[in-house]
């Protein structure tokens, strides 16, 4: 059966008992839902847009990462994990040598370098064209890895080391601008509030106050990176959910992704299995995949172009599906309902 659908005409039954007929539809178009067209991310000549968002796989060279499945204490285990990520559609791998939160032992810079540098060298040798991100807040760590050809410096602690952005520029790498509410590296939020003082003198913490602070800090950080010599399309702005934020703050900030994307820089969202997902659904870290993917879909719809993820294959499929729903990416296959050759066998 052949069917043609459209909005240009509607059936008008006319008066009761008459034959009726097709009449022009006074509303012949459907107003599209306005969507943010995000700023592309460009690293080493590779471009990522709303049509092909980047998936950044996480490799933690730490024995105490909050998600045990992402701990790769040996070089061999980490390389095997990257091989799997590449097969699953990863675009960037993000390698870190220090746990983000305050639990666990303090790690000095020399030890951090010892964890990441030999591994980065092995990754570059085995995957020479793979984009590599270094997750560190220390300029000396990034400088020690200069010969590896780092493609992105992921500064997750809001420029705590003011020299790091300049090292990224020296390396001709991209740079991640983050928002932590001023929290120091490796601290967990405690009594966090945003906004001007209320009647009691404490920050009023209106739901929109955290968004205003995120936008202010990301704008300032992105402008600082530009002044350091990093091209705008290589400056990722990351609202950095969980860092310096309560779960309420993180959920509100996620809803503001379109506003953040409107700042004119590509947006990174690091959502994977975080505490705001766990607290929202009351789930332990091992059970947070579905909540993470729901947050990922929302962030993709609202204009995020890069996603830091533990679960690469699932994230790749979600962001590609959202890109197609937005209309930015064509479907991989278009066969259903298409007129077939009469001699062709049904699928």
Describe this structure in words.
The protein is α/β, with parallel strands linked by helices. It has a single domain (42-326), classed as TIM Barrel (Alpha-Beta Barrel), CATH 3.20.20. Helices cover 33% and strands 14% of the residues. The protein is built from ten helices and twelve strands. The protein has helices spanning 75-88, 109-126, 139-144, 164-170, 207-228, 247-255, 257-261, 275-281, 289-301, 312-326; strands spanning 9-12, 21-24, 41-43, 46-48, 54-60, 92-96, 131-135, 152-154, 174-178, 235-238, 268-270, 306-309. Strands 10-9-8-7-6-5-12-11 form an eight-stranded parallel sheet. It has a two-stranded antiparallel ribbon with strand order 1-2. Strand 7 (131-135), helix 3 and strand 8 form a beta-alpha-beta unit. Helix 9 packs parallel to helix 10 (312-326). The longest helix is centred in the middle third of the chain and has 22 residues, at 207-228. The model is unreliable at 1-11 (pLDDT under 50).
- Give the topology string: H per helix, E per strand: EEEEEHEHEHEHEHEHHEHHEH
CATH topology: TIM Barrel
CATH class: Alpha Beta
CATH architecture: Alpha-Beta Barrel
Radius of gyration: 24 Å
Number of strands: 12
Regions with little confidence, pLDDT below 50 for 5+ residues: 1-11
- The tally of structural domains comes to 1
Largest sheet, order of strands side by side? 10-9-8-7-6-5-12-11
């Amino acid at each position: 059966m052949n069917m043609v659908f459209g909005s240009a005409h509607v059936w008008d039954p006319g008066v009761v008992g008459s034959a009726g007929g097709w009449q022009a539809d006074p509303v012949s178009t459907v107003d599209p839902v306005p969507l943010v067209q995000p700023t592309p991310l460009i690293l080493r000549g590779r471009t990522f847009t709303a049509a092909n968002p980047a998936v950044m796989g996480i490799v933690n060279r730490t024995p105490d990462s909050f998600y045990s499945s992402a701990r790769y204490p040996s070089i061999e285990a980490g390389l095997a994990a990257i091989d799997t990520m590449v097969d699953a559609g990863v675009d960037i791998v993000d390698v870190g040598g220090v746990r983000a939160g305050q639990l666990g032992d303090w790690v000095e810079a020399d030890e951090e370098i010892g964890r990441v540098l030999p591994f980065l060298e092995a990754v570059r040798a085995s995957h020479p064209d793979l984009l590599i991100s270094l997750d560190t807040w220390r300029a000396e760590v990034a400088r020690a890895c200069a010969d590896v050809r780092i493609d992105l410096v992921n500064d997750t602690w809001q420029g705590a080391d003011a020299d790091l952005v300049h090292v990224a520029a020296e390396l001709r790498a991209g740079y991640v601008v983050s928002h932590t509410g001023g929290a120091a590296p490796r601290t967990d939020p405690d009594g966090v509030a945003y906004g001007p003082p209320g009647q009691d003198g404490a920050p009023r913490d209106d739901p929109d106050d955290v968004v205003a602070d995120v936008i202010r800090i990301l704008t300032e950080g992105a402008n600082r990176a530009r002044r350091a010599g990093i091209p705008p399309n290589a400056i990722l702005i990351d609202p950095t959910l969980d860092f310096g934020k309560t779960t309420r703050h993180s959920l509100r900030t996620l809803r503001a992704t379109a506003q953040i994307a409107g700042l004119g820089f590509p947006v990174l969202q690091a959502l994977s299995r975080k505490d705001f997902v766990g607290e929202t659904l009351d789930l332990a870290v091992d059970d947070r995949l579905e909540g993470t993917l729901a947050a990922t879909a929302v962030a993709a719809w609202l204009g995020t172009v890069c996603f830091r993820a533990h679960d690469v294959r699932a994230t790749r499929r979600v962001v590609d599906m959202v890109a197609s729903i937005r209309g930015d990416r064509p479907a991989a296959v278009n066969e259903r309902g298409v007129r077939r050759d009469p001699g062709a066998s049904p699928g």
